Amino acid sequence: MKPSLANIVTSAARGAFVAWLLLAGVAYSAHNKVTAAKSETETKAEHVEFNHNGHQQAADGRIVVEAANGGILLETSDGVLWTIERGDIVSRKKLAEPFKPLPPKELSERLISEMPAEFRTYTTPHYVVVYNTSRTYAQWTSSLLERLYKAFTNYWEGQGLELREPEFALPVFLFANRQQYDQASREDLPGGTGSIIGFYSLRSNRINMFDLTGVEAVRGSGSRGSIKEINQMLSQLAAVPLVATVVHEATHQIAFNCGLQQRFADIPLWQCEGMAVYFEAPDLASTRGWRGIGRVNYPRLETFRNNLPNWQPGSMETLVRDSRRLRDPRTAADAYADAWALNYYLIKYQPKAYTEYLKALASKQPLIDDAPEARLAEFRAHFGDLNKVEQEFLKQMARVK
After folding, report:
1. Sequence ranges of the chain with CATH classification 2.30.30
2. What stretches of 14-103 show up as alpha helix (H) in DSSP?
3. pTM: predicted TM-score of the whole model, two decimal places
């Protein structure tokens, strides 16, 4: 039986490794014909009425994918993707006007209308931050994200990639405490956020997080009345992994909005996650962005090195061919270290091939699944024989200090 559009996306949203749940396993059967939408300038908006979670609702947007079985992937003007089965569609009607993403001011108004009265918005060149914590913390977060955006895009453009400005302003929701954040995240994480301090949703294109200065590990380290004081609090050792997680998720959001990756496309998880780890380490003392892009991630390196005695020939193949090791909570920590190490090695030692590989991934269309053998063939086409790459990878990574 061929999988349904909704079941595939729902299964990803409930995946075991929920910190990155919407980045895993979202693919439509390659045996089902899908039709991608035309460019924005050619696409007419559609009005769709459909059933969702037992309620009928309506939305205007563009059809990104139309499956042979009648299901659709609809993108609304605020950047949200709706997966709608044929049986849930009540009506469809083409509109006269073309699809247009909401400008930042209108997106800000749309987002704030969804939230309780105490929420406010703070807008920067690329972000719309919706918050009910302090305005200073919203400013600190948006400054961090703008620095990351500049560092990320400058880095890859310097490697020869052509990136584009995001169609949509990038939405970020900042909650005053973990409880509010957990409650607001149930659409994406039905089982609750658990220990996850922030995540990027492929479905909504939004980042959800909460005020890190309220975390027990950093709360007693001083006041947070100014951006300087927030920097001091979040620069201490206990806060480093918290900030790294925010940066990791923000890296995903940028990559999926600047043309480097396509939402709901079958991007190999080892590459997607390993590249995000590559950008994790900000320098909070610098106002100019990331000074250490690509520097060694020592916690990941330590995990990788500790596991080397158990490395088996062909371990790289299992990492590349599918995402099971990364999605299984029993093996995820080790697999993420392996994914970081492989991305680090390829970026450092095969930079041209890695850039061409990114270009190939950028061309992938939503909801089209790659078979494991196709993934391996694509890897070989860019980097060469897996056995030789694995040998050189292990040799070079053993020398990293």
Report:
1. 5-98
2. none
3. 0.89
